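Reviewers of the previous submission asked for a worked example of the structure-prediction workflow described in the proposal, so we include one complete record here. The input consisted solely of the amino acid sequence. No template or homolog information was supplied to the procedure at any stage.
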Amino acid sequence: AALHARNQGARRLTLRVLGHNTPARRLYEAEGFAVEGVLPGEFLLDGEYVDDVLMGRSLLG
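From that input alone, the workflow returned the following structure tokens.
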């Protein structure tokens, strides 16, 4: 996906992940994504509010 986006002229990739999804967050961090923001209690999931974590990475360089 990163290569395709770069070939299309994109400079950045962004994503959103649920705060408690630690395996996904670790995977994204291994791919160069960093946390850029958190929306606390953004989603109600199974009766519990969970954070929305915003992550991004540069495609430059």
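The chain has one domain: 2-58. We consider this example representative of the routine output the project will generate in years two and three.
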